[in-house]
Each structure stands twice: as C-alpha cells, then as structure tokens.
Amino acid sequence: MNIPAVHTPRLSLSFLVDHFFYLVFLLVFVFFSLASDKFLTVSNLSSLLLQCSYYGVLVTGLSFVIISGDFDISVGTVAYVSMSVGMVTIAAGYPILLGVALTLLTGVAIGLLNALIIIYLHVPAFITTLGVLIAGRGVGHLLVAEQGGIEAPVALTQFAQFRIGPLYLEVAFMLLVMFIGQFVLTRTAFGRTVFAIGDNEKSARRIGIEINKMKLVLFTLSGFVASLAGLVYVTQVGYLHASFADGWEFTAISMAVIGGVSLFGGRGTILPGALLGITLIVMLQNGLTIIGLSPYIHPFVIGSMIFVAILADSLKNRRN
Amino acid sequence: MDQEIRSSAQNGKLESIRLKAISKTFPGVRALNNVFMEMRAGEVISIVGQNGAGKSTLMDVLGGVIQPDSGGIFFDETPVVFASPRDSMQKGVSYIHQELTLFNNLTVAENVMFNEYAVANPLRPLDRSAINRKCAEVLEMIEPSIKPGDLLASLTVGKKQIVEICRAIVSGASVIIFDEPTSSLTLKEKEGLYDLIGRLKRSGYVIIYITHHFEEIFRIADRIYVLRDGENAGEVQVADTNTTELTKLMLGEYAARMFANGDTGPDARLGDDRPALLEVRNLSSTTGLQDIDFTLRKREVLGIWGLLGSGRTELMRALLQIDPLTDGTVQIDTAEGMVPVPREFTTHFGYVPENRREEGLFLDAPILQNTSIGRIRSFANRLGLVNRTTERSKVEKVVKDLGVKLVDIHQRVDNLSGGNQQKVVIARWLIIKPDIIILDDPTKGLDIGAKSDVYRLINELVGEGISVLLVSSDIDEILHLSDRVLVLADKQVSAVLERDQIEKTTLMEHCVGQR
Ligand SMILES: Nc1ncnc2c1ncn2[C@@H]1O[C@H](COP(=O)(O)OP(=O)(O)OP(=O)(O)O)[C@@H](O)[C@H]1O
Ligand SMILES: [Mg+2]
C-alpha cells in the first residue's frame, strides 16, 4: 500500500497551542530582563535556580503520579510531617544521619498509607490525599508547635552554600533527580507502564498491567520524593515552622501542568517540560518582586498563568 | 404500516447533495483527493472501501467535524460551508456514529429532545410533559414499544440506536449518515434497522450507509460509491453488480486476485488428536455464567458462538479473571503438568477485546508504544531498561506483516482509521506469541482484504503452536475458521460441535437454547 507523502508545515492553531508555552517563557524572560537591570545578573539567576531546586525534586515525583492519571495533593504535608519527625529526632540529640533517614522513611510511610487507602478502601486518590493533607498537618503541629519551630543544624544548612561556579550544589542535585526521573519515565518498562495507565486504565488492565501494584509504587515514590524535597528546602530556609511547605501541592501541580504534564494523564515530560514550568513560575515570583510590583498582585498574575496553561491542556485534549 | 416519517422541524424538502472535488490532507496522509459524490432524496447510498480509504473522513467533512482543504458541498445546487457540526446539523445532516452519543442517565424523551431544550434554549424551564408528548409522536411513527419516560440505560443497544435516529428526525434531519451501525446489534435488531432505513428512504430522506458487510449493501442500498486510497474508484448500481466486482473495485485488480487465491480454512492445517492445553471445569461467575465446561486443545481454533447476551464476552472476561469466578477451575498445561492459571494472565494469554477504543488502545500514544506495551518487559533488561532498537524493529515487522496503513510508527494511533487501529491491537500479541490468544470479534470494522489478512495470521499462529479462542458475531467467520465450536445459550454451554458437525443450521439451532 503506498501512501502519498506530503508535508504541510504551517503556522496553525495547533502549532501555537503546542509551542505556546515556549513563547510565553521567552516573553516573560525578555520582559524582566528589559524591565530591570537587576534581573539578568549571574547572582540573581543562580539564586532563582536555587529556589527552583526543591520544587524540581518535588515535581519529579508528582509528575509520575499525574502522568499515571492520578493526583497526590498531600505532598506539602508529607514534607512537613517527615521533616518534623527528623528534626525532633535531631533536636533530641540523636545523630543527624538518623534524623535524615527517619525523614525519608516517614515520607515513604505516608506515601504507602496513601496507596493502601486508595487501593484497599477504594477511596479516590484526590480525597485520600486531601485527608492526609489536612490531618497530617495537625500531626506536624503536634511535633513542632511546642517548640514554636525548630532550627535546622548547620550540618544541613551548609549544603545550601556549596557552589560549583555560579551553580549551587542543590541545583545540580535537582537536575540529577529530574534527569533520572525523565530517564525512568521514557526509557524503562516501568515508565512506559505509567504512561499506559494514564492514557487508558482499562486497556492497561486488559494487557495484564497490575494497576494496584503500580499505584502502590507511585504513591510511595511520591511520598519519598516529597520528603526529599522537604530536606532540600530546609537546608535553604534553615528553620522548620508551622507553615513549612504549606500550599506546595497546588504550586507543584501547577508547575507540572504549565510545563505540559497533562491533568488528564498520559502525557508530559519532566525534562524539559516540568523544569521549564517550575522555572517560569519562580521567575515570575522573582521578577515581579524585582520590578517592585505589589506582592498582592503576584497571585493574580501566577493564577492567570495557571489558568491559561490548563486551558491549553484541555484544548489539546479536546483536539483528540 | 408504511406511514411517512416526517418532522415539523424539517425546513423544506432537500432534493440532492453534491460533494465536488473534496480534498483533505492530514500530516503525511492524503486522506481524500478530488472526491466526487452525489446523493438524492429517497436513495440509500453505500460507501465502501478498505480500511483507511477515507470513508469516515469524507463523512466528517459532510458532518462539519473537519473542514476540507479544497472542494465544495452543494445542497440543491446551493453551496454550503460547514464550520462546525452545528452548522451541518442546522442544514439537516445527522451523523449516527458507531459509538452512540446518548446520555444514559436521561430518559428517552430527554435524549430525543436534547437539542430542542438544552442546546437551543438552555435557560428556558423544562416543560417535561411537552417534551414527552412531542417525543411520543415520533416514537409512535418509528418504534411504539419504546416509551418516552423510559430511562435510556434500561434499553438494549438496538433500541438506543433507534432513540438516536429519533433524535435526528426530531431535530429536522433530512440526511442521515450511518457509519458501521450494525456492529453491536443482534440479528433481530439488524432486521429492525433495515426496515426502518427502508421506511426513511421511502419518506424521502437521503441515507448514507457505510459498512464492510456486503450482504448489508445488497440488502438495503441502491447505489454504491467505492473509495480507494482517498480517491473515487467506482460508482455502481446495486442491481448491476456483485461481490466479485465490488472486491475488485475496492482492492484493485491485483490484490483482489491474491485475495481470491488465499486459502484460509482450518482444513489447510495438519495434525489431529492434539493434547489438551486449557481445561475449564464447572466455571461459574459473578456475571451469571453457569457450570461452563470445556477443553481447549493445542494448535486449535475453538470458536465461541452464541447470540448477543449469551455470555460470550463474559466467558472471556472470566477466563482472564477480569470478573471474579464464584466456582470452578481453570487449568493450563505447563512444563509442570496441569496447573491453575496464574493471576498474571498475560504469561499465557493474549487478549483482543471487542471494543478497541475503550479497552484496547492508548489513544495518546504512538503506534510503537501501543504495540510494544503488550509485553514491554520482554524488551527490557534486568534493570528495566527498554532496548529501543529491538523494540522498533520488532514493531515495524509486525505492523508490516499485518499491513497496517500508516505514515510511520511514531504516528499517534488515534489518527489511524478504525480498521487499522484494530490491527494494532492484534499486532501487540504477535510480538510475544502467548500460548493462547483470545480474539473477541477480531474483524469487527475490518475490510475484506484486512479480514483475510487476519484469517491468514490466525492460521499462521496456529501453525506455530498457538491456540486461539475465537469469539465472533459473524457466523461465517466461525464456520470458516473453527476446528471446533463451543455454543453458548443463556450463559451456559448448549453444545460442543466437532469439525464435521459445524454447519450454519446446527449453530443456529443450538444458540437459541432448548429451554
Ligand atoms: N486526524 C487525523 N490525523 C492524521 N491522519 C488521519 C486523521 N484522520 C484520519 N487520518 C488518516 O486518513 C486516512 C483515511 O481514514 P478514514 O478514517 O477516513 O478511513 P476509513 O475509510 O473510514 O477506514 P475504516 O474502514 O478503517 O474505518 C487514514 O490513512 C487515516 O490514518
Ligand atoms: Mg471509518
């Protein structure tokens, strides 16, 4: 059977929808560079990337869950609770490594709890993780509120100081995590399976993919990664307080979606997609502050950006 | 009986539609090239062509779903432009898709009148009695056994389709397009649909009917347009043609000869007294199956025949442990003798489900991923890393063997024509060759050429030692391919027929059940 091959490259609506995001990214970057001479400096850009680093780690885990067609909105709480466990341990005089290990372990445990509730009690992931989001914060408060907050040890905060040239060590760490994430997502059987489930869960079942096993791994992974992101964050802020990692879930989901990870599942990339989404949001926060816009306007600008991204996502979905 | 079917919403009477020089190109594919077609009121036009010939695309143009790159549509010689399905609907075109577009949670009347109350004027308070009254008028003309107040979910597929036709008529349709409408209907429902189409035709509607079943064409159509590779390949009156000529027009002279020479019956195969591979004993399930007993032998095609609702699909789902069993055992012959089938069924089974879009495909993903995902681990090393070179070459080989019409394997599977999508689902299992392949209506939506490709493939698989469970609603397919046939009726086994007992009459006798 021969098919007449023809090429029709043209600037169509679908081209714009597909590449819209890159245009916006470029525009925002150019705009801030022109609007203020404090934006396009090595020190500002490298601290901007540093701010991205914990989000980068967080979004990597979350992207897996979203691409598989699910949600985990407990990630901020997971970071908070697991950090609390670790910090209380360290504050009580135990070794720092034990504190770090307990932090990560707590992340895994909460992720596992999410997964078990979703799988065995058949509670939708959104509701399950919403419950953990609310209840977990209470647990965290119980652990840290008495002290009114806990100072992070220098052994941890020094990590935020290391640099390789203008690049902070934590940015390199973020890139490594994201690279591994993207690699696993596209090059391994596991990653392919994640896409398959998010694309069509029924079809995935019919070819023998065990959805529950996958959910177990995905939510546990997301919990683990959230606690890892908490660790990266604490090295930067140096202090564990009651609103630690508050609201991360929605920021992180927005970043992923702006970067092209589909809310409907089955589509998206960590590199470059999610990374650009993260950078765009952080750049907006950073740039708007630099040009001296009232902080009350920031949420409006960022909210509009999220809205447009989600609109573009559903447009793409409708086209199919 | 033969009352005229009319609706007050119809504005004037449409005499003819003309499609002139329609062309449409998708990235990499010229789906339509200068296609011409003319239809007149009171005529049933059938469009035939191989999978990917452009039938659905042409109807999408007429239905306003897509816009052609060039060419024109003329209604009674007046040019019309359809920028959206809505435009086309307002000009009286109704498109009945294979997948019904009704709301299960609404009543029949609410569905039929949907465009009237919900779309035309969403803020007007709903006058239920008026809606029911108007709907009753239409149902009276078409199918009085359906009541306006019935919940849609309570109807059979055939009746739902009638509801969809009613909706078309109420919204003032004068042109009704059917795209493979009979694929999920029972024999009786099909007859009902043919009758209804006949009446619509005599009432002066333009009917366009797309199908791969020649017997349907000879039954209801007046004139046939043949498309091949996106171009007009012929126009014939049904009265002056036959299957051979149609096949030739569809496939081209050469391919048609190849088709006629292909031997695809089970007799072409060798070897009897094949050992048992799968033994099913006293199987009962939550879906109503009762005491099913049968044996599948090595290297055989076991046909599963029964009417719609007899438990065919349920049996396959139970074997795959999609629906839980309440009783009985399923054992498979392995190196360690007969053992219960493990929960991970894909170690032994490959499954081609009956509705490919919902249960078979990953529509966002390219052909490559759709094909390799069936046993993605077989392409991966111990760390789970996929070897993309072998993946690509194996996938390329199977899609070529199956003759999937594609631009390249990175094309999204959603952009393939219906028949080619089905081939991709089958291709998935050709890569891994499991012990048993379950095919649930595998040639649904396939053209005759592709059908014979699939038949040939089934034979090759069996030749390689694979057993096939073949469910089909096409009795000729069962007759043609099966070594033995398991007949189901009322979710029980009503007969197991050996090769020399398989005949149309016996199959029909057993499937109605002898209660
Ligand atoms: N949205 C799209 N993007 C790219 N290619 C497309 C798209 N829709 C259809 N095609 C291509 O156009 C050609 C015609 O497809 P079409 O669906 O009209 O075939 P068909 O005659 O209806 O086939 P079937 O009998 O299998 O339903 C095919 O090669 C198909 O792959
Ligand atoms: Mg089609």
Structural features, described:
Chain A is mainly α. Helices cover 72% and strands 2% of the residues of chain A. Chain A has helices at 13-35, 42-67, 75-91, 96-120, 125-144, 154-157, 169-187, 189-199, 201-206, 211-237, 248-258, 270-290, 298-319, and strands at 150-151, 163-164, 167-168, 239-240. The longest helix of chain A has 27 residues, at 211-237. Chain B has helices spanning 55-62, 85-90, 108-112, 114-119, 128-142, 157-170, 187-202, 214-220, 243-251, 253-261, 312-319, 356-359, 367-372, 388-401, 418-432, 448-463, 475-481, 504-511, and strands at residues 16-26, 29-40, 43-49, 70-75, 78-80, 93-96, 175-179, 206-210, 223-228, 231-237, 276-285, 292-297, 301-305, 325-334, 337-340, 349-352, 436-440, 467-471, 484-489, 492-497. Chain B is globular, with a radius of gyration of 24 Å. The two termini of chain B are 34 Å apart. The mean pLDDT of chain B is 84. The complex binds adenosine-5'-triphosphate and magnesium ion. The site of adenosine-5'-triphosphate has 19 residues of chain B, from strand 2, helix 1 and helix 15.
Layout of secondary structure:
The complex is a heterodimer of chains A (320) and B (515).
Chain A: H1 13-35, H2 42-67, H3 75-91, H4 96-120, H5 125-144, E1 150-151, H6 154-157, E2 163-164, E3 167-168, H7 169-187, H8 189-199, H9 201-206, H10 211-237, E4 239-240, H11 248-258, H12 270-290, H13 298-319
Helix pairs in contact in A: 1-12, 1-13, 2-7, 2-8, 2-10, 2-11, 2-12, 3-4, 3-5, 3-10, 4-5, 4-10, 7-8, 11-12, 11-13
Chain B: E1 16-26, E2 29-40, E3 43-49, H1 55-62, E4 70-75, E5 78-80, H2 85-90, E6 93-96, H3 108-112, H4 114-119, H5 128-142, H6 157-170, E7 175-179, H7 187-202, E8 206-210, H8 214-220, E9 223-228, E10 231-237, H9 243-251, H10 253-261, E11 276-285, E12 292-297, E13 301-305, H11 312-319, E14 325-334, E15 337-340, E16 349-352, H12 356-359, H13 367-372, H14 388-401, H15 418-432, E17 436-440, H16 448-463, E18 467-471, H17 475-481, E19 484-489, E20 492-497, H18 504-511
The complex binds adenosine-5'-triphosphate and magnesium ion (MG).
